[in-house]
Structures are given as C-alpha cells and as structure tokens.
Amino acid sequence: MDLLIAANTVTQPNSDLAPATGTPGWATDGDPTTNTPATQAPAWHYNMMMAEMLAIVKAAGITPSNADWSQVLKAIQTIFSPAQRGVAPYSATLAQLIGGYPKYAIVVDATGIMWRSSADDNMTVPGADGAKWGLLFDGLATQEWADDRYQKSLGFTPVQQGGGAGQGTNKVTLGWAKDGSGLKCQIDATDEGYISFRGDQYFVPFSGSTSNSSSAAASISFTPVRSGRVKIDFNVGQSSSNNISSININTSGLNSLGGGGNHSATNLYVSSLLYEVSANTQAVFTVEGIFAGAATATSVGGVATFIPYND
Which CATH class is domain 201-308? Predict the structure, then answer.
C-alpha cells in the first residue's frame, strides 16, 4: 500500500487535519425519506486512516508500495511473529517498536538461553555487558526452593552416586531380583551379582553324644534361599584310649568339593569339608564316629558355615 498518486494531492505538512472540536460519529449514506443527508468524507479522515496503516507497515521495516496490497497483513505478521512461541526470541526490532521490553519479560537468545528482563523500557541486548537481563532461573530455582518443592514430594532422601574419595563416575544400579532371590548390583553394563547381608551368611552348630557306647552321631539340616558353599568343621572324640574304627558321613543335597581329616590322637578325629548347595534345596549332613570299644562318653560336634554365591 502507499499514498495517492493523483492530481490535486499535497504534501503532508499541507494536508488537512482533524478539526479541533466536534463530536465524533459514524458515517451514513443518508436517507431521503427522513431528510437525512449523506456523510461527506473529508480529506483529513482519509489522511488519518492512511497514516495509521502506513505506520504499521513502516514499523515492520517494510517500504510502502502501491504494487503490494497485502503490506498491512505482512507487517502485522512480522511484528507479532514472536508471539507465536511460548517464549519469544529476543528481537531488537520489537524492542524499538514497543519502546523497550517491560520488566520481567522473558526471551530466548539464539543459543537457546532464556533471559528475564530486570527493568522496564529495556532496550539492552541479553548477554551483553551491562545488559538489564538476568538468566531466567537465577535467584528462582535455589537449592532451598528445590528441596522444599521436590524433596518433600519424594518422601525419602536420595543417595548420591559417586563423588567420594577414590570413586569414579560409573553408573551403579541396585534392584531386587525378579525371582525374589535377593538384592542385585550392576556397575555400568556389568552384572556384579548379589549383595550379601549379614543374615545371608550363617553358622549352624551341631553335636551328639552317648554314654557307655562305642559310637556317637550328629546331624544338621537347612534350606538356603540362595546357592552357595558350606564349610563343615567337626571332631569326634571319646573319653578313652580306644582307637577310631571308622568315620561315616552321609549327605543329601550337598555336592562335595573336597576336604579331609586327621587323627591328632588315637581317640580324636578332626575334619574340615567343603560342599556346594543349590538354592531352595534341603541340605542334610550326618557324621558318625565308631571306636574300637565303649567308653563313658563318646561325642561328635562341629559347625557348618554357609556363604552364598555372589552371582
């Protein structure tokens, strides 16, 4: 759009202006039946409307042209294009149009950083030296604010991962095994197996004794929830000088991994044995000591130590 190109036009200083007095009203074509005359549109009213529209076109940086009849629309689209975003990009042109950004206005710069205006009529550029802009969350998202807003919602205190002396930045994952067999740990992509607690390792004592007999026996039985190894230490003795005739061992649910025993005296036998046991399998161990003759007391005693596997 542009001004008239026609005979009898004048320059702006010589153009008609609105009257200083009078009552503003709406135009009419008139009505002969009521003797209402038609409104005569004066030149000043045309000048006013053209000035208003040309101001919009020029504010958008568009040069008026009578060959383009969509310049007002284009100007409006240009001026309000930032408003199409939730947070508009900073625009020096818009700052000029509105006389500077208002206090607390939020913009985003070309690198994606968001800024908050700290003054009214702000013509400065975000990020420049002395600019009246601050980072959006400065002074807002404080640690105290985050703790109050989010920590309470968690209902527990998170544990920091890494950051301690000699610690790396590896990702540590803890989780309960799908089959309910225990707590597992993974470091990055490596499965480190189960975490053992004090209750996972236990000790089972066993003993048996007889009077005026040549033999004695003792037995233990337990069912572990995890697979592991069992170390059984026991001794067989008699209150006499009778020699040991035999040591009989019977097991169920235990896979022997080795071990042995020895005679520290003719009437004393000491042994350590190692076994493997599977999860949820009843393990039974029975030992019987037989001597060459009877005695006042014949006894068997020991301790079974269970240590779960870590895988």
Answer: mainly beta
